[in-house]
TrEMBL record:
Subcellular locations according to the entry: Secreted
Family of the protein in this entry: Belongs to the peptidase S8 family.
Comp. bias regions, Basic and acidic residues: 204-218
UniProt xrefs under Pfam families: fn3_6 (PF17766), Inhibitor_I9 (PF05922), PA (PF02225), Peptidase_S8 (PF00082)
Keywords: Glycoprotein, Hydrolase, Protease, Secreted, Serine protease, Signal
UniProt record, GO biological process: proteolysis; system development
Gene that encodes the chain: LOC113701892
Protein name in UniProt: Subtilisin-like protease SBT1.7
Signal peptide feature range: 1-27
Residue ranges constituting the Subtilisin-like protease fibronectin type-III domain according to the UniProt record: 663-777
Amino acid sequence: MGDLKFSRLFLVVTFLVFLGVCRVSVAASAVQQKKNTYIIHVAKSQMPASFDDHTRWYDSSLKSVSESAEMLYTYNNAIHGFATRLTAQEAKSLQDQPGILYVLPEVKYELHTTRTPTFLGLEQSANLFPESDSESDVIVAVLDTGVWPESKSFDDTGMGPVPASWKGACETGTNFTSNHCNKKLIGARYFSTGYEATLGPIDVTKESKSPRDDDGHGTHTSTTAAGAIVGGASLFGYASGSARGMAHRARVAVYKVCWIGGCFSSDILAAIDGAIADNVNILSLSLGGGTADYYRDSVAIGAFSAMEKGIFVSCSAGNAGPSAYTLSNLAPWITTVGAGTLDRDFPAYVSLGNGQNFSGVSLYKGDSLPAKLLPFVYAGNASNSTNGNLCMTGTLIPEKVKGKIVLCDRGINPRVQKGAVVKGAGGAGMVLANTAANGEELVADAHLLPASTVGQKSGDAIRDYVLSDANPTATILFEGTKVGIEPSPVVAAFSSRGPNAITPDILKPDLIAPGVNIIAGWTGAVGPTGLAEDPRRVEFNIISGTSMSCPHVSGLAAFVKGAHPDWSPAAIRSALMTTAYTAYKNGGKKLIDVSTGKASTPYDHGAGHVNPVAALNPGLVYDLTTEDYLNFLCALNYTSMQIQGVARRNYSCGAGKTYSIGDFNYPSFSVSLQTQVIGGGGGSSSGGGSKSVVKHTRTLTNVGGGSGGSTYKVSISTTSPAVKITVEPDTLTFTKAYEKKSYTVTFSATSMPSNTNEFGRIEWSDGKHVVGSPVVISWI
C-alpha cells in the first residue's frame, strides 16, 4: 500500500514538474514570438544586380526571415531602409542578411514640453536690416503634435504664392481637409503607422487621425517659429499685445508624429524623410529620447541627411535639468537649444496671517478669493497618503481642506493637476512650493483655482509658518503682467545641461533661447492646462520648456536664412552662436543660473543667449561641409559600417591619415586635458606638478563683406590662472568676401583635481563685429 501511495505521489509530482516545464516553454516561446517594430538600415549600394528596384530587394530580404512581415515604411531620403514588425529571432536573422547594416529597435520619444520679439530686439531689425522678400521663400517644418489651422497665427493675408520649391502636401483625415492649408500653412501631414503597429489603432474619439492638433503643443511650437502677426493676443488678459513668430513671413509645414501615447522613431524618421522630399529649409523638433551613439539614433541619422540637403535642424535640449549629463539631441549637425527666461513675469503674492508676504507667479483668471484671510493647511497634514504633500489624485481628505488654502509641494504629478486635486477636494486655493529640484525657478500656470507658485526659499518659510502656527491663515493677491524683470534672461532650472554624454569634445547645448512663460497659438480641442476637467478654450496659451526655446531658434534660423539664402546650416548656426551673449547688457555680470543663483557656465548656456539682430551680420562664421562631418566620424574611430549607418554611403577613413576632433570646425571649444601626477602620492594633483597641452585648429570665413578689407584681433579670457590659452596668429586680415583664414589654439594648464572644469572665451573683433566662442577645459 505504501508503494502504491509513493507511485501515485511520484506521478503527481512528475506531472506538475512537466506542466511547469511546459508553461516555462510556452512563456519562452511567447517571448520569442512577440513582435516589435524595427528600423532596418540597408547599404543600398550592395543591392544585388538581380533586382531593378531597391524596395523589391528590401521585400525579398524581409520575406527570407518572415513570410508574414510587411514593411510599415520604406525610407528614401532620411536613410536607406524600411521599418517592419519582427520577432527577436527574426530580427537577428535579418541582421545577418547581406547588405543589412543595422536592425534597430523602435524608440519612443517624448515632447520636451508677444513679449519675445521685443525682448530679442527683432522690432528694431526692420530699421537695421529691411526685411527681405526671400524670408517668405523659407519653409519651416515642425515635427510635433500637429496643427490647429483655425489659429489666427496661420492667417495668410498679404502673402504671395507658395514657393515653387515646395513639393509637399496637405493631407486629409479626421476633422481635417486640404482646405485647411493656405499660403501660410502650406503643408500638413501625419505619420502614425509605427505608433499604431505598437499600440493599436488610434481612437478617433480621443484624437484626430489627421494633421489636426488635439494637444496644443504642436500649434504652440509652429506659431512660435513662424506664426503671423496677431494683434490683441493674450491668455485671460495676461501677456497682452501682438503675438508673432520669429520668422513671421516664413511658411509653415507641419508633420504630426506625436500622439497620446508618445512619438515613435519609425514615424519621426518617416516624417524627416518626407520633409526632405518636400524641400523644406528648416526642421524643428521639440522632442527627445535617450542618448545613443549617432549611428543608432534615428533623429541624428535623419538630421544628417537633412543637413546634407542644406536643411537647418534645431532640436530641444531636454527638460531634465539642472543635473549634469542630461542633454538630448547631441549630434554636432543638430543645433541643440536650452531655455532661458524673458523679462516678463506674472506676480501673485502670498500673504500670511503673520504679516509676511511672498512673491510667486500665476496665470489664474477667475473668481477672486474672499477679501479676508482664509484658513491655511499643509497638504501633508490633510492627506491619507505618505506622499500627500504632493497633492496627488485621491490623496487629500475633503473634511480637512474644504474652504481652505492648501500648501502643496512640487514634484511627480503636473503642477496644474495638483490644483485640480485641491479644487476637487473642496479647497479654496493653493500655494505650490518649489523643492530643491527646482530652486527659485518660477513657471506660471493657468490654474483652475486661485493659486500661486513660489520658489524654494519662500516655500520653506511658508511651510514653517503653516506647521508652527496654531491657526494659520493666508490669501493670494494677483497682480497681472509685469515687464522689465531683472536680471533677465536667466538659465531655466529645468533646461538640460552638459557635458555631452556621447562626445565630450563637442560642447552642448549650443545656445539658449526664451523658453519660460512663452505665449503662442493653441488648440481649440483642450483647455490651457490640458486637463480633461478644464472646460476653458483659448486662442493663445502660455507654457514653458525647451520645447518652446527650440522653435525660437528654428524661426530665427529662418530669419537669418531669409537674409542669407546661400548660407549653409553650419554657417547659420555659427552666426547664432558666435553673436550670442553671456553677460547682461547692464552691468556686464555673467548670466545667472536660476537653479543655483550663481553665474551659469557653458555647460548650462552653451555659447550664450541668442541675439538674432547681431546674427544677421556676424562678420565671420565657422562653416562645415558634409566631408567635415564625415571626418569627424573618422575622428571618433567609427567603422565604415557605422559611418554608413549615419551617412548612407560607403566612406572609408584614410588609413594613413590622422583625424582629430580638435580640427573639427565647431564654433565652440571643449578640451579634455589628461594630467599625470609627478612625485607620487596617487590620486589627483592640485599644484603645478604636471602639464598637458592640446592644440585645436579652426577656420573662419569672412561674411562681413566690404572690399576695403577688415582685420580681426583676438582676445582671450579664462577663469583660472592654471589655464593658459594662446592663439596663433593673433590677427587675421580679410581682403574679400568669403575669404577663409585659419588659426591654431594651444591649451596648456597645470594639473587640477580630477573631474573639475574651467571656463574661458575666445573672441575675434574688428571693432564692429565680435565673434565669440566659449571654452570648456576639463581635467580627466
